[in-house]
Every structure is written in structure tokens, then in C-alpha cells.
Specification:
Strand order of the largest sheet: 1-2
Structural class: mainly alpha
Strand content: under 5%
Distance between the termini: 38 Å
Helix content: 55-70%
Order of helices and strands: HHHHHHHHHHHHHHHHHEEHH
Largest sheet: 2 strands, antiparallel
Number of strands: 2
Number of helices: 19
Shape: elongated
Amino acid sequence: MKKVLYSLLLIILFLSSCNSQKKTDKTLSVEQAIKIYEAGYKDVAKDILLKLSKQGDFNADFELFYRYLNTPEDSYKYLKNAAENGHEEAMKYFLEKTIYRAETFNNSRPKEALKVYKEYLKKSGKENDEQSKKLLDFLTKCAEVPKLNAKKFCKKYNLLYKDEDIKREAYYIWQLAEEASKENSRFGKADPTLILQLIICGGYVPAETSSAINEFYEYYKKGEVHEFKIENYVTSGFGINFCSMREQENRNKKFNERIENLKKSIKIDNQDCFENSITAYFTFIDTKIWKEECHDGSGYITWALESSNKQKNELLEYIEQLFANSTPASNNKNISELTFELNQLIEKRNALPPSEDGSLIQGPKFSVSLDDMKNVDSLWQTYKDNMIEFIKQQFGSKASEEMNKWILQKRIDDLQAVLEAYYIYK
């Protein structure tokens, strides 16, 4: 209550100063404007900050940038003014916007970044600081590289140019840099200048950007062409997930090649049964990794895809061993024992009490519900029936019995993992 009353008093003082014919423009400070903002009077606080900004208060400029939705032009103006007047946090944001996280052709402004940083050093008195010197050297390198005529370049090769379009495609400009670094690309002969220009324009994460620029600046100075690969520089969960999803296309191609090779050894009458069983298995696995496996953390997509690939590889290896007349390791338990164990786990799982939102297990990056898992059960049963039938037709009853035990044990392991996760996240 005292906070609200104090804020109201500040507002009254501000309105009084506005109505006064005297030029008492410094009645309120940025700190007081922030208190008014935090009390919920955001429009009043903005009027105060705008007034202070016109008086040359760069701290007000930063607050206007940080706390309000402005036009892109005003936002850039406020941030730049605060940064070049020595505001440390503003300088950090300015470098991210113009270099480290530029992401688009229009945001990338290395020469402007260098100019503003030099002004910042003068105002902040950090010119002799070792870290500042290193950063100054880095920005000097970026500014040295000739500016890419992005509009002309994009028009020539029919590329995305507008900020909003580029931001829909992760690492879009860095993907262009990858292409430009390869011989005989659509951009013609690989050019170290173009490669570095694109790397500078497409920064996504500070550590990634600085690492890539520093390395390819050396190649640029030597006039050497080296292949640029995004996966060599990613450090963030987002970057790791992006690379994993992209690499998944190659992994899927390899799985398809293995499947096609297996089909060459399969009896003609069993071709459809084999395709149905593999399709059912891949559908089961690709649903299970998202709906049941509880992958979490910044690299959750990567962990999920790695799990999917591991399980797909295990099944294909099992079938390849059968074709090589090598019998996979047998489970010592019989089918009845394994089925009983599996049903007990299903009963335990089904008896788990859900949370208020209906989920059984909830993490930052995933949610598992009983309905989701029952759907996975259904997909598993379809895969199991199809696969056992195929193995029986292709390799005989003994092989199908061993496959049945293998499939049951895998599902038992799955449900034990679910129960463990439930008690971990409970």
C-alpha cells in the first residue's frame, strides 16, 4: 500500500511539473519512473522517460528500449544512444543486435557496432581493460570485411531478404554460408570474402558467432577457401537440436537403404508383410520418443532423435543377423513369464494418479499422459503382431518365438523407465 501511495505522489509531482510554467523538467528521475512503472502506471512512466530522454538522459533511453514496445527505428535509436553514452547493459544488447545475434541482413551492422563501441569505451573509461581490447579487436575484424550488397545478392539468387522471412528459417544465412563454401555451388567459385560476409550477417548465438568469425577471418586474410559447417560451431541447445533435425534426413536415407537391401533377400510373398512390420515399428518408435520417453533439457530434440535412431538400428541389426544365419542372444525367460511381467507393469502404470492437468509426468520440455501411453501401447501391439508374423513366414516358428521374447523384453524396459521417471518428476 505504501508503495502505491508513493507512486501516486510521484505521479502528482510529475503532472504538476508538466502544468507548471517553470522549466522544472528534472522533478523526477529514471529511478522514480521505474517505481511508477512497477506500480502498474506504465503509460505515466513512459511519459516521464520520454521527457528525460529529450533532456539527454541515456538511462531513460535504455529503459524505453528495454520496457516498451517501440517501432524498430525508435528501439534502435534508444539502444544506440544509451550504448554510446556508456550504458553497459545497452552496449551488450547493441552488440547482440548488430553482430552476435544479427540473424538477418538488415540487423547486421559491424561498422556501426565498432563505432558505437569506441564511443562506449570513451564514456565508460574501459579503454585499457584487457577484455575490452579483445572485443575491440574482434569488432575491428568484422568491420574490416567489405559490406555485402545483400539486396542485390538476394535478388540475383532468389533468396529470402526480409527480416520476418529469414527469422522463420533457423540459421538461414549460415546455411547460405555453408553452400557458398562449397565448390560449384549456385554462387559460383567459392569466395572466402562471401563466406565471411554471410557468417557475419547470420550470427545466432554469441559464442557461435565469435568462434566462426575469428576462424574464417584468418582464412579470409589468407585468401583461402575452407568448408563452413554449422555443426562445428553450435554451442546452444537450439543449435544442437537444429543440427540433429537436419542430420536426421541423412540418417533416414541410410535406414531406407538398409531396408531396401534387406528386401532383396526377402521372399516375394513376404515383401508386403515386411514393409508393414517395419512401417509399424518406425511409427511406434517415432511416437514413443515424444509421448513416453520424457526427453528433457535444452537438447531434448537431439536426445529424442538419438533414442529413435538407436532403437531403429537395434531392430534392423536383429533382422540382419537372422539373414546372416547368426542367432541373436536369447532371453532366458519364456513368453508366458515375460507377458505376465509386462501386464503387471501396465497395471501399475494405469493405477498412477494423474496431476490436475491430466498428465502423469510433466517436465519443462515434455508431458506424458495415460492416454498418450495407451496410444503407444496400441502402436506397439500392431508392430508386434506384424513383426512376429513376418519373422515366422521368413525364418520359421523358432525365430518368431525368439523375436516375440525380444519385443516383450524391450516393452518391459520401456515401462520400467516410465515408472522410474514418474517417481523422479513426482
